[in-house]
Automatic annotation (TrEMBL):
The chain crosses the membrane at residues 178-204, 225-251, 271-292. Residues 181-296 form the ABC3 transporter permease C-terminal domain. Signal peptide: none annotated. Keywords: Cell membrane, Membrane, Transmembrane, Transmembrane helix. It comes from Micromonospora sicca. Belongs to the ABC-4 integral membrane protein family. This is FtsX-like permease family protein. Its main location: membrane. It is a multi-pass membrane protein. It is found in: Cell membrane.
Amino acid sequence: MVEGTSRAAVGLAGVPGLAAASTEIEAPVALTTGSGEMAYTWYSSALIIDPAAYERAHPGSAGLTALRGKAVAAGPGADGFSVGDTVGVRIGDVDLGRLPVVAAVPSAIGGGASLLLPPGLVPEDQLAEAPSRTFVTLAPGAEAEAVTTVLAGVGTIRGLDDWLAADDAARRATSTGVLLMVMGLGGLYALIGVVNSVVIASAARRREFAAGRATGLTRGQVVRMVLVESSIVTTIGLLLGALAAAGTYVAVLVTTSAVTGVATLSVPWPLVLSMVTGAFLLTGVTSTLTSWSATRPSSVSLLAARE
């Protein structure tokens, strides 16, 4: 994998020692579907590709022979249009008008570009500094070191596994950010609910704490007892939450297995561990402070008030 700019990627296919090279130039694009009052425009990404090279680099994407001239293909992240539709395309200040969708590649579970464009459709000055990535394959018998030296002058070189790992990390970071935003409001309400429940439960047990102290428990022992109880309740809540999430995990495994042939599940463990730690800290600190406050009056006065 060679990452650079579209200008630098020109001529990569002619580098001695390469059996194949498939360059994909990425560009932001404004897409419009529908017409009149039903017209809808949104922003996405497009790849400018060589159809034949793209098919070799991406097995299973055959059927792009019609992608030439003023036409587009639905990419792996296409949504809202398919083969036979027309879609308005604008890249930068260049309005390409409404173009027919003449082909499509299989949708990817991880998304991707919405459109695939043939070379020559977008003016070169619009793509001069656009980012590009080129999948290269060494020819049999080629000296890898010599070819790598030439490619290093074009852009950043990564092994395919390294590039996939970096792409996975970037997508995971985006997914985690979205997840945090979605969870934010719900988490705030849950935080308020948990604090209220712990405070009310501990405050209502003043006389129970007093009875325990009257039978020989120290104030510290009562507070530790409440802390242990809150930890047990928190553990049960987390286990029930994990059980509820297990259904989603099973659905993810089934879906990825059906789409890619390999069951895949990526759990954001740092986020999960931070949530678990935060839950124990929240209930532990709240129960400790509340029980310490509830045991401040003397046990004799509380028991006398009970009589």
